[in-house]
Task: structure prediction
Amino acid sequence: MEAQSLPAALELVAGGGAGLSPEQRAALSASLLLLQRDYRFERVWFWGCIQGVRGAYYIAEGLGPDCAAPRSRLYSLNCVDWSLLTPASKETLAVAEHVKGRFQGDPSFEYSLLERNAEAAARLIESGQEPVMKEEARLIATIEQIDTAVGIVPRGAFVKTPLGAVHENRHFEGLSLADAKKLSSYFHFTDPVNLKNKTLLEKADLDPSTDFLDSLEHDIPRGSSWSIQLEKRGTVVVLRSLLWLGLTFYHVPMTKQFGYVYFGTGEKNLDLPFML
Amino acid sequence: ERGHGPYQPHEPGYGLDKPGYSPYEDEIADPHARMLAVKNAKAYLLKTSTKSGLNLYDHFANILTKILDEQPTNAVDIIENISKDVKWAQFRKKMDTLRDEPLIPPTFEAAEKCKALFFKEGGEEEHEEVEEEMGQPTLPNVMETAFYFEQAGIGLSKDESYYIFLALKNLIRVQPIQTCRFWGKILGLEKNYIIAEVQLREGEEEEETGEEGEETTAEGEKKTGEAEEEEEEQKDKAEPPQSTYKPPPVIPKEANGTGTNKYVYFVCNEPGKPWVKLPPVTPAQIVCARKIKKFFTGWLDAPVVSFPPFPGKEANYLRAQIARISAATQVSPTGFYQFPEEEEEEDEGADTYEENPEFEPPPVAEMVESLATWAHHVKGILKQGRCVWINPQKLEENDEEEDDEEEEEEDEEEQPMEERGPPLLTLISEDEGMKDIPAWTAQASTNLIPEYSVAILQSNRWPGAYAFASGRKFENIYFGWGHKYSPESYTPELPPPAQAEFPSRPEITETVDPTVEEEMAFKIAQEEALAEDEEEEDEEDEDD
Result:
């Protein structure tokens, strides 16, 4: 969610019971502005909070002028001091698949891979590194996975220019109430995977400036990996992801307000097919 | 399309650069040709498009009108968008005499319901009489609890908390309630549940059990009537062999007011909607709920499709999960509650506790550091699904009063192990963690202002269960999806193995019927055997 609209947005997402304390809100409103100044971001998003067993990580993302470029991510343990995270590499993502369970809350904690997966440990030993995974690396991988899998935006909120850069659409007036309840009006905000698989007939109806991302309709399991609800007496539409429990997306129809935030333990819900 | 270059014959403006046709010459060489070129250009602009019925001339006129009316900044940069908007505006004209009905979004109805919450109730006379007799039921201070939890970042928005406050007030007014508490909120796929934990006044519950008792006696009479008819029929017909299978006895649910059914729960989907009472929970439902993991849809009468099949609907599943969460995560500071001194301590643990008037709250720092400062005040649920263990064999004995001989045999065979759970008021430091994760995480709400910080407990076994303590005040709450955390993935129970076939014994093996020749041969052999016996007897007689 946008740093400027943090208090209002937190009110809208509070239906799930998770939020920030007044102390954290106050700290964030100051420190996020400073982040924008220091790192020269165009926009700063408060991404959310991952609860560890002994502490929590607060995550912020900074965007440059091109919204499709890889975003810079920062984490903090107390909402005041922020540290930049390196972008996720493929090896980190692969190794993080094997580490399961809660986060500990200590960024220098090391997960031993020897117990969890001997292959990955062997590969690491061959390349000359120790067979451990640091919690910081796991954090990077988890944030990347969550953003790729369930970071969503409403249709029409971003436009793609012919040169390929993605900008915010200043003409975006918000989705209508009828559109807001459909899964097809929301897109994953990452590189599209399914677009090229669409039939020519479907592609003819798409508008290349706004429909350049994957919609939510094709998420597996079909149609049921999101819970769409109208909250606050039908004024806010809230989407909650069932694959990553804790990710909440809100949008006020017919206005420009939207955003998503993650409050959870940072674990994928692999039991989803059994639970539906 | 062209940049430009020399005008081609098909382009408007062709010929205007020739001498005599340029607009800048005073003398117009051949006005007729020039007029023709202008007319051609205008005719081209007025050509209606086959696709949309618009023409360029009118379109440009509209754009220029719009720009001159609105005077936007940097018009040249957004000219394409303006053009698009003008085209769009074509379709918006409503010249029909039929007007669309204004869409009434569901938001307005919901807002009406919420407004109704704010009305003060009429009919205050009756209310006063009841108050004098019973003493006023305690409405919990939901806003105060919400304030303390907010210090930890937990809780709903202030608006929603206030609506819940008012909804609880309505609940107390409508139902005969003695104590009431906001238990928490469980999220569902289509709708959420807001749950209130309530203790009804003592007279009210008996009516229910009375009704249930009447129903069972009516059924019992029906059954004996049918049994008599069946016996008469049996004398007439030969019945197929009766199955000797007796299903294991159903473990009875605990009485209202004790154990898992100590509190009654009311749920509603949104504050403003009517409260629905959840039925009491049975041990079978708890045992099954432990084996399945399902999302709640938000509809209380939705079926729960699972294996093992859940005995009940979503309302029962919800009630079972609430019972499990309460038993596992309702905690209070150690020493706040104590056992009353008069009662003897039974082996199974006393079920009642009372507030300790001499309780001295430890400082917040101590409450955060050591988990021994917190204790459970709800009894844990045994494997059987109840809080107090019951011997299933004794149940069988009560049912079968006729077959005394069988009873004695069964007693000798097995005695089910008596289950004992931890006694009431155990410290939470005794809770087991999972692998390397402790069962509880304790934090202070703020490190910057320790004098006013609040001790917060989060459960790791049931993510979403929180408790806070500040001085003498404490409270528990739940916000979540209603599922237990497990480090391993959920594996559903496998279906039972296929049953073995009845062992083959000679009595039931099929053989082919003997043919006529075999029967005759057998008959002849028998007669010969008889004849031999007779001859032997005759010989013996003769000998004598």
About this structure: The mean pLDDT of chain A is 85. Residues 1-85 of chain A form one domain. The two ends of chain A are 29 Å apart (CA to CA). Chain A is about 30% helix and 25% strand.
